[in-house]
């Protein structure tokens, strides 16, 4: 279980967001910290294979996202801040769809999470008709499908009530030994209750 990226650069037009960022992560919980607009979401999107870097390479559990993307992406989960996709699918259909895409099934751990996040009453509701918080909880639970080696989350506590934040913190703590969990968050209190190590965005750039 590892995540490594080396000399990753990205610019949007003349705006350089990442300049040779490098880092290696062993299993554990990490909170990516930095001011608005510095590039945290851009970095997560590159690590998740949503965005191509201009230069550099990302390795997910030893597989290159650039030269072996299918193997690399099979080992990772990504939870965006918002998810406008699949409004027509029910919660259950969405979880099954993601399990199918990962060539696996919904196992007992995910079923337990459905109950811990109190999602079961909404499994037959279409995603587009769920509240934003329920959509978020569905995407969070989906991230556990396929036992990822790397879990990337953009602002995971956004829109969650206090009870759900605590449930999420407990679930993340249980991954500490077996997954690289990186979250971008401005919620310092959430990072603290999770027990995440704080990684400064500038620190990653300095290692390039
Ligand atoms: N697709 C894009 N096209 C052009 N510019 C972009 C694009 N995506 C991001 N940017 C720019 O890249 C910079 C970094 O944005 P990013 O969303 O990664 O920052 P962030 O650190 O996640 O910010 P926040 O804390 O506000 O979420 C910003 O200046 C943003 O405007």
UniProtKB/TrEMBL annotation:
One of its GO terms (molecular function) is ATP hydrolysis activity. SUPFAM superfamilies: P-loop containing nucleoside triphosphate hydrolases. It comes from the Bacteria. Pfam families: ABC_tran. PROSITE patterns: ABC_TRANSPORTER_2. Keywords: ATP-binding, Cell membrane, Membrane, Nucleotide-binding, Transport. Residues 3-206 form the ABC transporter domain. This is ABC transporter ATP-binding protein.
């Amino acid at each position: 279980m590892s995540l490594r990226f080396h000399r990753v650069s990205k610019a949007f037009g003349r705006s350089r967001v990442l300049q040779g960022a490098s880092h290696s992560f062993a299993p554990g919980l990490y909170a990516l910290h930095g001011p608005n607009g510095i590039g945290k979401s851009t970095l997560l999107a590159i690590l998740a294979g949503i965005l191509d870097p201009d230069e550099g390479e990302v390795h997910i559990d030893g597989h290159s996202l650039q030269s072996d993307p299918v193997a690399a992406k099979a080992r990772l989960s990504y939870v965006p801040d918002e998810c406008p996709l699949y409004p027509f699918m029910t919660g259950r259909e969405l979880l099954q769809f993601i399990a199918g895409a990962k060539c696996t099934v919904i196992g007992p751990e995910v079923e337990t999470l459905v109950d811990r996040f109190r999602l079961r009453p909404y499994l037959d509701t279409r995603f587009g008709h769920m509240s934003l918080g329920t959509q978020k909880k569905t995407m969070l639970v989906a991230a556990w499908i396929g036992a990822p080696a790397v879990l990337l989350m953009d602002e995971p506590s956004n829109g969650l009530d206090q009870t759900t934040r605590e449930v999420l913190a407990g679930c993340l703590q249980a991954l500490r030994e077996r997954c690289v969990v990186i979250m971008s968050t401005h919620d310092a209190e959430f990072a603290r209750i999770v027990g995440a190590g704080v990684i400064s965005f500038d620190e990653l750039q300095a290692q390039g």
